[in-house]
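Hey, can you fold this one?
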Amino acid sequence: MKPQQLFSVEGKVALVTGGTRGIGLMIARGFAEGGARVYVSSRKAEDCERVAAELSQHGECFALPADLATEAECRRLAEALAAREPALHVLVNNAGTNWGAAFADYPDSAWDKVLALNVKSVFHLTRALAPRLEAAARPGDPARVINIGSIDGLAVPALETYAYSASKAAAHHLTRVLARKLAPKITVNAIAPGPFESKMMAATLDRFRDVIVQGCPLGRIGEPEDMAGVAIYLASRAGAYVTGAVIPVDGGIATTR
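Sure. Predicted structure:
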């Protein structure tokens, strides 16, 4: 198989949650430019429509807004996707949130909000879409679930983001559990990003960019191609024999700390 075929996502159907900005948008753009038919989801319908229109200039992209903090909305999104597509080749569970506060003041509401979106929605949406994912599976080319974790779930973060770091560690382990449960028709892997330009990272990068860059073995902040490349690898034939893996994409920060 030629390299351009080995790493191709052409003709695949992909759903990217949290796909209107940051890491989700990087992945959605990479898939659309690679020839996949992409559905982007986020809470705000206007953001979904704007991004779908933008990415449609480079490929096929459609808006499917949903607030995935509840199981009911996860089911509704799965039903909306099923009404449009008989099969789903790639699900990217990227929707997530963060909450930082001092140890003494960290509220219980932070745990509820962060765990609901960063962990529970991954489970609920994957389960709701499992029939569509199984319908896309072919021998040697299973359907793919790609969960977006974080290096904060691999190593102790510098900032006081207790619920976030715990939720990402949970998402990494849920990835392994689902990988065993859903095999062989569906692979489940996680990407653990380090610092990338995104709304969630904006305040941190404004304050600590130089420190982060100095602490990164590769000496820079992640770029969109870095994230899109790993997602395309996992979604393509090249990644068909990988499941249950958590792949840091962080310039070596977590693994060489």
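Residues 3-249 form a domain with the Rossmann fold fold (CATH 3.40.50.720). Let me know if you want another pass with a different chain boundary.
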